[in-house]
Amino acid sequence: MAAEKDTDVNNRDRRGTVCNVVISQESEMGGSGDSRPPIIFNPDFFVEKLRHERPEAFTELVLSNITRLIDLPGAEFSQLLDEVPKTPNSTAAGGFFRSFNFLKRKDKGVVFGMPLMEEGIAQIYQLIVYLNKNLHVEGLFRVPGNSLRQQTLREQLNSGADIDFSSGDFHPNDVATLLKSFLGELPEPLLTQRHLHAHLKITELSLFDDQGNKTSLPDKERQIEALQLLLMLLPTANRTLLKLLLDLLYHTAKQQDKNKMSAHNLALMFAPHVIWPKNMNASDLQENLKKLNSGMAFLIKHSQKIFRAPAYLREHARLQFANTKMIHSKDDLELLSVDGSPFASACKRSGARVRLDSDGHTEEALRELYRHVTDHMPNSAKKKKLIRQLGKQSSPGTPVSENTTPTSKKHARSRSFGGLIKKKVLGSQPSADRRGRHVSPPGKENISCDPAS
């Protein structure tokens, strides 16, 4: 039973924490039962593709939507401009949607007190995996661990060692306390100093009444959307560790009946290390303390949503690589109507509506394909079949529909009433006798006759 429990935890780590993908295995759904690998689909693939191939366009798109949701004065807005996503040629290459194989890497080097890098995350990830298996411990993250054991564990992590937690040398409270120490010793908070004002503004987003007056009720939908956008501007390493940490805290809070640690309690433990600025004076901290703590609790409660790209951003990124009409913001989705988009159902679920103007692109492709078939393919049955199929796909007025051969009409009438008569008349005749069939003029029944009759 213990082995099965560990396997379940590891599977959840891979699916919910590390990959951020949808995994579909046909054999699990009663399929063919063969040993084919699972199908992995990342719904934010095109967003991350845009982030890394066109970072300037990505940043402009995200910033424009952030300012649509929250009011940022010039100085606060310029701070966000400093966060330009790393490109694949930079030292932090790869991106959030790539493989997290680096978490298995244990490169040697000091971890604590150093700027956040992949090597450090790979070491700290050992702590996160161990804590995920001990979420039932009462007072986890609140009860301090043994200082001597923590020092030993710190030295092992700094040396790049693989920690053998199965030996029983360390208690979950030791590991939990050391994880907080690692975050507290980072040169800047995990959410970065530059994002502080934006996070404070997000906590202030509230609903409006029917008269358009601001109420005291938080607008959770807009808060989640703003966080989805803002977290995309984090450096890759910060975003990676934040995702791993919040997923751990989310599942910790789900077992609060055992560990007595709610999302609010966890927020009080981690807000100083994740969101509190290092250089904020006591008066400013006291003024914003409630907002900072509530913001951290909100991150924990909605950690399974805030790392997804908004629907309109996914659609915009996909369309940018498809050379079709762009959807820049949620307002565009609401103003445009939906009918031909494969993403329409997802957009409708989020209250959005889309119209894709791709007819011109499709018709141009059909015309080009038609010219290639007619000019380069030799006359054959296959060529006629292709022309008939192109004629079906085209709309009236295009060269494809205007140049289709009468053969397509004969094929189109094969399912008509006349076609049924032909089937009755010729049903018992040999196939060779049917080759003499001819097509009647339009408006008359298309009845095939034997040429000898």
From TrEMBL:
SMART domains recorded: RhoGAP
Region (Disordered): 373-453
Keyword Ubl conjugation in record: no
Protein name as annotated: Rho GTPase-activating protein 19
Domain Rho-GAP: 114-307
GO MF term set: GTPase activator activity
Single GO BP term: regulation of small GTPase mediated signal transduction
UniProt keyword annotation of Transmembrane helix present: no
GO (cellular component) term, any one: cytoplasm
Polar residues biased stretches: 391-407
Pfam families per UniProt: RhoGAP
